[in-house]
Specification:
Distance between the termini: 25 Å
Helix content: under 10%
Strand content: 35-45%
Number of strands: 15
Radius of gyration: 18 Å
Structural class: mainly beta
Largest sheet: 7 strands, mixed
Strand order of the largest sheet: 1-13-12-3-10-9-8
Shape: globular
């Protein structure tokens, strides 16, 4: 599977999401798995959200108060953090999903290459948008659970697009909203200063039951390295996002 350069995802579509989850389950090393089926009846859309914010100790005292009124455009600029060379860098975290369906189809949904997927046709997975600024809404991928029988396994991952290793400079979290039952939270809280990608969690269809397993495995490479770790067997090429 290859990428296409200079393409941006289409305008985010509107999706229905459940709002009944008032509590949360946090997956940890000790408690790494949870069954989506045991959270309640599965239907509609599973929402997977990536959010992050900069560690205040690494921003050099930068504040959004006051200055934003003088220069409102600063609100739309990526946050900057201290890299390990002590230079200032922008952090652009992206959320993606590798998938393998029961019919053997394999692929990826991600911002690179405009691979935004489709909710109502194969692969029944859709990226809603590409957040480059660490906004509170973050990035979201939807999975159509009405076609759960088509899913064999999913791997959700996060990578740093600008190739500057800075995972340890952010507070990043991935949250699953099943629509029924509590939300499921996974913190990317393990320090991996030189990592550029992270396998966050998997969803596997085990005899008709969808099981979520926390992974949080950091790697120094990108999607191809994650692919090798989990054995999807796809072909990868370098891709870019426009900076419009």
């Amino acid at each position: 599977m290859g990428f296409w350069d200079g393409l941006r995802p289409r305008r985010a579509a509107e999706f229905d999401v459940g709002t009944s989850a008032t509590s949360s389950v946090t997956l940890t090393r000790r408690n790494a798995t949870v069954s989506l089926d045991k959270q309640g009846p599965l239907s509609g859309h599973l929402r997977v959200n990536l959010s992050w914010r900069m560690r205040t100790s690494d921003i050099g005292g930068r504040s959004r108060q006051g200055g934003g009124l003088l220069n409102p455009l600063k609100f739309f600029q990526p946050d900057v953090v201290q890299a390990h060379t002590q230079g200032m860098v922008n952090v652009d975290l992206d959320l993606g999903c590798m998938y393998e369906l029961t019919d053997g189809t394999k692929g990826v949904v991600q911002p690179l290459g405009n691979l935004t997927g489709d909710l109502n046709a194969l692969p029944y997975i859709r990226l809603s948008g590409d957040d480059r600024f660490g906004a509170p809404s973050g990035e979201t991928v939807y999975v159509n659970l009405d076609h759960r029988d088509a899913i064999k396994r999913l791997l959700f991952f996060v990578y740093i697009y600008d190739q500057t290793p800075a995972f340890d400079r952010t507070h990043a979290k991935v949250t699953l909203y099943p629509g029924n039952g509590p939300r499921i939270e996974i913190d990317l809280d393990e320090r991996a200063p030189q990592a550029r990608s992270c396998a966050v969690f998997t969803v596997e269809n085990v005899k008709g039951e969808l099981m979520v397993r926390r992974e949080v495995k950091f790697v120094y490479g990108f999607q191809s390295e994650l692919d090798r770790m989990y054995g999807f067997g796809m072909q990868w090429g370098r891709g870019y996002k426009s900076r419009a």
